[in-house]
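Late entry, written up from scratch paper. The run itself happened at the end of the previous shift, but nothing got recorded in the book at the time, so transcribing now.
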Amino acid sequence: MNNYSPNMLKTFKSCPQKYRLKYIEKISVPQKASVFEKGKKVHALANYYLRGFDVSKLEKTLTEDEKKSWENLKNNEYFQKTYVNSEYTLSCKVSDFWIGGRLDAVVKDEDYYYILDYKTGSIPENPEYDFQTMVYMLCLSKKFGKNIKFVYIDLKNNTNCLIDFSAEEEYKNLITKIRDEIIKTKFNFSYSKKCDYCEYSKICCQRIRE
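Output as recorded:
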């Protein structure tokens, strides 16, 4: 495997066993759709809106909570900048492997291109060095140069987290380091307290008993 998404890198850092089950053995575990319902609706609506479609009928189907998030996004200063693309799939090569993902949206003004990432939940604890930030910025810089910024739009609290692209080599080194760990890891199954909250816990526990 030589193509890595932010979720893959995050999963490995959190739990190599889960990475193995999800991305190497490709075992899919069902999760409650309701957990992701609001995020999916807002992201789909944003994509149609940015592409110029009439979304008035779709807006009427939103719950009050969903409507609040959508209004926060529509009125956001970065969301109102000039549209470039949305649900935008990009990839680039780092060392001898590829990274990539799908960006919620890319907008621009006279000075910068902005990666927009809408969050109906919480933004990452360390957003500047989140794998999503690093991967997306590296990929977009290959397309549009280094005048780019990343904006996490926190729809719950109606705030923005703006990140400059100023650590290109550091980003490459951090991503290469964890990719090398993935290649070298033997994926031995073990138990920790966090396993109790993982959707793969039953499978892991069975592997440990075996």
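The longest helix spans residues 168-184.
(Scratch paper discarded after transcription.)
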